[in-house]
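Inputs:
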Amino acid sequence: MTAGTAMPPEPTVFVVDDDPAMRDSLCWLLQSVDLHVETYPSADAFLAAYDVGRPGCLVLDVRMPGMSGLNLQDELRARNIRLPIIMLSGHAEVPTAVRALKAGAIDFMEKPFSDELLLDRIRQAIDLDREQRDAGARRAAVAERYALLTPREREVMELVTAGKANKVIAADLGLSPKTVEVHRAAVMDKMHADSVADLVRMRLALADDSAPR
Amino acid sequence: MPRHRQLAVGLGLALTLLGIVGWISFASTTELIAATQRVRQTYRVRQRLQTVLSLMRDAETGVRGFLLTGAEEMLQPVNGARKGIDRDLKDLRRRTAGNPEQQQWLEQLEPLIARRFQVLDTIIAIRRTEGLAAAAARLRAGLGRELADEIRTRVSQMKHAEAALLLKQERESRTRTRRALAAVGTSAALGLAILLVVVYLLSREVVERERAEDALRRSETHFRSLTENALDLITVVNADGTTRYVSPSHQRVLGYAPDTLLTGSFVNLLHPDDRTPVLESFARVSRTAGVSDPIELRVQHADGSWRVVEARVNNLLHDPVVSGLVINSRDVTDRKQAEELARHHQAELAHALRVSTIGELAAGLAHEINQPLAAIVSYAKGCARRIRSGGGTPEDLLGAVEEIAAQAVRADQIVRRLRDFVRKQDPRRERVDPNHLVREAVRLVASEGRERQIALRLDLAPDVAAVWADGIQIEQVILNLVRNAFEAMQTIAVADRGLVVRTAPSGEAAVEIAVTDAGPGLTPEHADAVFDPFFTTKPDGLGIGLAISRSIVEAHGGRLWATANPHRGATFHFTVPIDDRGHRHAA
């Protein structure tokens, strides 16, 4: 499945737990609210099968043989897979929970968990995933358009979004204000920005993308 | 030859010799008397012969006298001589009856004497008739003188013969006497010597006997002082069960005067539950020689309390000196109480350790329990939602509901296992399968093992015998060893973290359970020290796990030790005796 097709694919809740009863029962629970579920007995199995384009979220058990939940979390981050993660644990270990959350997990829950809470979190996670993907798509679009700008246009865009007036830009770049006007118009056009505020937003989006995480 | 026969023989010999001496003495005395008689005989013979000669001379003198005087009175001696000579010759004949030589002389002599008298008679007749001259002429003719000479010769010869005989007899006598004396001397000396030997042997016999009696007396005193002062009880029982001897220590130990115990029956003092086994044991020992195994029985003290006594029976029925059963027993009540206390303490300590172990296992165990619980919640909630929305088929719902039940059972098992493990109870020995114990113990730490990413493998001998042990305690030991192995492999690369738990028979009477890790192994200094209490290489460890494990194993009659693996890591082994109750009580 490739990104950008007309109909966004249905989000899937990916359940990774080595205990068959856990997988089974979670599947049963999630399907009762018409969620789409896929279960995997191990982190490796999941990594092998997962395609980064698939939306949804990840429900993960901390203690598993082989790669643990935390390790999977690290691995996904390393691969730049931003699927939201909800961690489940049979034992409330504070250090583990803190680490998971700091590493970006949506939530960390103890078993047995409240089904309501879990379902809420899953919905939130799915929404988050969708937002992230949308934002990502938008950013990608912006980046595409940015790529079409000439270097001079980029410079102009930089200063415009910095809030500088045309005169000042002209002075900074050693251009005539008229030239700056022309560049500015071109930038607005190419970037499909309706206003300077739009442009600023786009500029920020670009910065987000390239900022170190 | 027994001593008394030796003495009898010796004495017999001595007496015999003395008898011989006596007889010889008697014979010698007889000889002496005979010799005296012989001398007298010779003397008499010679006297008689002399008398004969003298009478002859008297007769001649008489005749000469008559010749000269013609007086008849002068002839008196002649008749007298005749009569006397007759008498003497008779006597001589008698006396020399056993001597043929003398008899011969006598036979020659008698006629000569008779002729002489004839001659004299002739001369007398002539004197009477013809007168002196004619008679004298006849006398001068000399026939008489020849006769007289011959008579004298014969007599002389007879005297000599008699003398010679006497000499010969004397010589023979002397020889016999000498021989007799020698025999007497030798016999007497021998007899004396034998008597001396006999006396010596007897005296030695007496000394030995005195010494033996003395030793016997001393040993009796010794034995008596030992039995009377012993703290152990010594009882001697006859083959029919009656009591023959009860040592005085019974008073001190059980509070009964020995006399009272001799009359009553021991059985009444025994605890009712012990009576049958004790009597059976007695019967068994009475059939076989030797010492029985120790048996424990409860005996009532005179003050009413019960004492535990450990007894051994020595079957001396066939020993002629004893011919009874000797029972050595000892009051072990205090010892038993101390043992019981020690066992109790060990159980408490083991329990404390189990509790602390559970604390350490808590994370893993909580995880274990929460899994089924979470599954139950998910299934149940899923059912509820479906029912509310009307979206679930009865089959689906049924499936979920059954899963709920299954998960509840799973949770219960975990709790039960935990509860069993932590429960404080007195050590209870029972028949258990060692493989089952290993699996149970491993189940308790399975999740921890997964978290530590340790590859846990079981290598259980399928035909291993059942052991006689307290299952919980053995599980505790296995758990302790496995968790130690986990800790040891903390610093090892994940790929190398291998743990193997193995069961196998150990000889004929035990099973060995071994836990092998791939950790850094034990240094030689640690190999033994690791079992010492409070020895630990863990920063937060107590260090009593292995000490308690070892005491548990040893209380079961097994052994716990560590070996280094050929490639890497250490192996901890322990043995547990198998359940051989079937064999042990077969007697």
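The mean pLDDT of chain B is 84. Flag for discussion at group meeting.
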